[in-house]
Structure formats: C-alpha cells, structure tokens
C-alpha cells in the first residue's frame, strides 16, 4: 500500500506586512503542489530503515530505525489523533540525527525540513521503517508556502496510514478529506511548521490544508471562497530576502512616522476588504468577470504603492513591475518583499500570445515564471496497491 498526498502552495493576494500592524490580509491557495508519497516495506523487503527521498534535489536520507530508537528512547504516550509539540529534549535528539546525515553546507537550509519530517513521522508512527518521497512544483524559499505544503502533504500521508483516520482505500484517483480529518492534518502540519519556522502564523498551513482563500486579521482566520476564476503569473525574482529584517524595517518606519504609517495600514485594510468582497460576490457573465478583474488590477496597483511606502520593494521587483506594465498588466509583490515573488493578474480575455511575450521578456532578466490558478483546491490524497 502506498499513499500519495498533495498540498498546494499559497500567495498573499493583499495585506502583507500591514497585517502585522492590525490590517486585514487575504491569502489564497495556488494550483502548484508539493507531493509526498509514503510506503511501508513488506516483510520480504527485509528493510529496517526510515528513508526520506527529496527527489527534485537528488538527496536521500536514511536512518536505521534502531538508531532512531536509541537516540529517542522515551517518546511518552503520543497519539496520532492528538497533535503534540516537539519537546526541547527530542528536538536536540532529532538535530543530532539530522547532523549525522552530513548535509552539505550549501544545502543546510534543508536541515529544518528534515527535522520536521523526523518529528512528524516518529510522533505519528513511532519506530517503523518506511520510505517517503517528496517532489514539488514550488520553488523553495520564495514565499510561496513550500514548507507548509510539505508539512501538510507529509502529515496527510502519515495520518492516512495510521489508525486515526478511516479512509476509503479503494477510491480511484484523488480524494478529499472531511472537515475533521482536515482539522487534524492542519494541526499536525502546524507542529511541523513550528520546527521549521519557530513561531509561524499558521496561515500558510491553513491555506494549504483547506485550499480556497483565507481572510485574516489580528490572529483570526476566516475561510472564504472565490466566485470567479483567477489566474496569476508568478515571477520568482530568485532574490533571497530576510523576512525578519523586512518586518523589523516596517516597524522602525512606523515608529518614526506613526500617523503616516497608520494611514498606510488603514488604506491596506480597506483594499484587502474590497478584494475579499469582489472575489466573493456572484458572477453573472463574462462582462461581470472583466469588470471585477479591472477593479482587482487597480487594487493590486494601490496595494503595491503602499508596500513601496513601507519600504519593502526591491530593484528586482521594480523590474518586474516595469516589464508587466509595458503590457498593461497589474502586478504587486507577494509576501515579505525585498525580492521573492511578484504577482501579475492575467485577465480572462488576455491572449496566450501576450502571456508568452511577457514571460519571455521577464525571463531575459533571469527570473523564473510560473502560471497558477488562484483559490483552488486544498489537500488531496490517493492510494495505490493493496491494503
């Protein structure tokens, strides 16, 4: 029996940075996925190791289960149906197990993800041999929720082969979880995100689990559903950024210019709420969709202008903005800024020829371009083999 889970990445459609200062923000799932397949060996395989294969990067990590048990002898009474945080003691033991894998210095950023894998696996399945294989359509570290998609897909695969979920193994093709199962997956994925990010907001894993869109303000997450098809060009500038430093920079600017920045944050809040209202309102025909897209383009441009006021743009982002503007397309940064990714709305009536030209123009700058549907499905699983 093999289970395969897929979980989508995410974008911030409106409200990044301002959300830290009390404004509303909108996050949406994108139809670019991370896939995790999980298989337990049969007795005839005579395999007593736990393996993690990061296929895209051509990395494979393996640990004899006896070595894991030796490093972490006392797990306590863990249950797959009760998501649990990793203790400091076990965190240290896992770090030692990861260190033994001799990850190259250039790829040391993978260590936190490998640690999250070990914790989620051990917490849900204990000391059993297995092989997990990971592939992804999401660029790493670009602000598209790649780590959350990994944690969500991994948690789903692990839980699917545990006793905590009752699933239909005979179902052909991709299937969705029910609400209670999604809730359990989301909670476990959040525990994995904590290992990777320390104090994550929970937004990325929630969007990846449930799909569609989320409106969030002051720690409150509200799931919303778009009533119109939205397609974006996502341009990865490939410029790394320091999210903590960018967030701190906005806070420092807010301290220096309190009333001006308060006005900026209020404006962002209004934009986010208007975006939410537009995407949730009924659509009657193509004309209505076109009118809505025009409004969204204006709101994206306004949001980008306010992000520039916050000081989180970057030369690479400005290059994308100038390039897409030549084709009369609206763009904004998504996420932390300072590099990372830029969103460009692709209107329904835009020809494929124009899209190809835009992409070719952007790629001459060394950028990576991806097209994605916005606000689509969340986590799904499929099974193969016999139970």
UniProtKB/TrEMBL annotation:
User: Could you tell me which residue ranges the GHMP kinase N-terminal domain spans?
Assistant: 125-211
Q: Might you give the EC number(s) for this enzyme?
A: 2.7.1.36
Q: Where in the cell is it found?
A: Cytoplasm
The record's GO CC annotations read: cytosol
Q: Which residues form the GHMP kinase C-terminal domain?
A: 294-347
Record SUPFAM superfamilies: GHMP Kinase, C-terminal domain, Ribosomal protein S5 domain 2-like
Q: Which UniProt keywords apply?
A: ATP-binding, Cytoplasm, Kinase, Lipid biosynthesis, Lipid metabolism, Magnesium, Metal-binding, Nucleotide-binding, Steroid biosynthesis, Steroid metabolism, Sterol biosynthesis, Sterol metabolism, Transferase
GO MF terms here are: ATP binding; metal ion binding; mevalonate kinase activity
Give start-end ranges for the coiled-coil region(s): none
The identity of this protein, by name, is Mevalonate kinase
Q: Which organism is it from?
A: Oldenlandia corymbosa var. corymbosa
Species lineage? Eukaryota, Viridiplantae, Streptophyta, Embryophyta, Tracheophyta
């Amino acid at each position: 029996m093999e289970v395969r889970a897929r979980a989508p990445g995410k974008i911030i459609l409106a409200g990044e940075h301002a959300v830290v200062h009390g404004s509303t923000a909108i996050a949406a799932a994108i139809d670019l996925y991370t896939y995790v397949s999980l298989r337990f060996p049969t007795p005839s395989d005579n395999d007593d190791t736990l393996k993690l294969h990061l296929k895209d990067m051509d990395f494979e990590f393996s640990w004899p289960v006896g070595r894991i048990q030796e490093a972490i002898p006392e797990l306590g009474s863990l249950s797959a149906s009760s998501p649990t945080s990793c203790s400091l003691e076990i965190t240290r033991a896992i770090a030692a197990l990861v260190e033994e894998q001799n990850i190259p210095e250039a790829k040391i950023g993978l260590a936190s993800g490998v640690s999250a894998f070990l914790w989620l696996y051990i917490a849900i399945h204990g000391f059993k041999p297995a092989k997990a294989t990971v592939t992804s359509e999401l660029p790493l570290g670009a602000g598209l929720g790649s780590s959350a998609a990994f944690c969500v897909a991994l948690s789903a695969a692990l839980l699917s082969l545990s006793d905590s979920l009752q699933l239909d193994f005979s179902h052909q093709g991709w299937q969705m979880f029910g609400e209670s199962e999604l809730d359990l997956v989301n909670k476990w994925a959040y525990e994995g995100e904590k290992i990777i990010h320390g104090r994550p907001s929970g937004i990325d894993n929630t969007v990846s689990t449930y799909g569609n869109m989320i409106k969030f303000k002051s720690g409150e997450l509200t799931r919303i559903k778009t009533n119109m098809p939205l397609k974006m060009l996502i341009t990865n500038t490939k410029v790394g950024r320091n999210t903590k430093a960018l967030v701190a920079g906005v806070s420092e600017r807010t301290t220096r210019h309190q009333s001006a920045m308060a006005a900026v944050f209020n404006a962002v809040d209004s934009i986010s709420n208007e975006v939410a209202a537009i995407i949730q309102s009924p659509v009657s025909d193509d004309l209505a969709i076109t009118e809505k897209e025009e409004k969204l383009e204006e709101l994206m441009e306004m949001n980008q202008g306010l992000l520039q006021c916050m000081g989180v743009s970057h030369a690479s982002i400005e290059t994308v903005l100038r390039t897409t503007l030549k084709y009369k397309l609206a763009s904004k940064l998504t996420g932390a800024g300072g590099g990372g990714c830029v969103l460009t709305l692709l209107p329904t009536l835009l020809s494929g020829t124009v899209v190809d030209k835009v992409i070719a123009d952007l790629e001459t700058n060394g950028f990576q371009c991806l097209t994605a549907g916005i606000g689509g499905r969340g986590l799904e699983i499929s099974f193969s083999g016999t139970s």
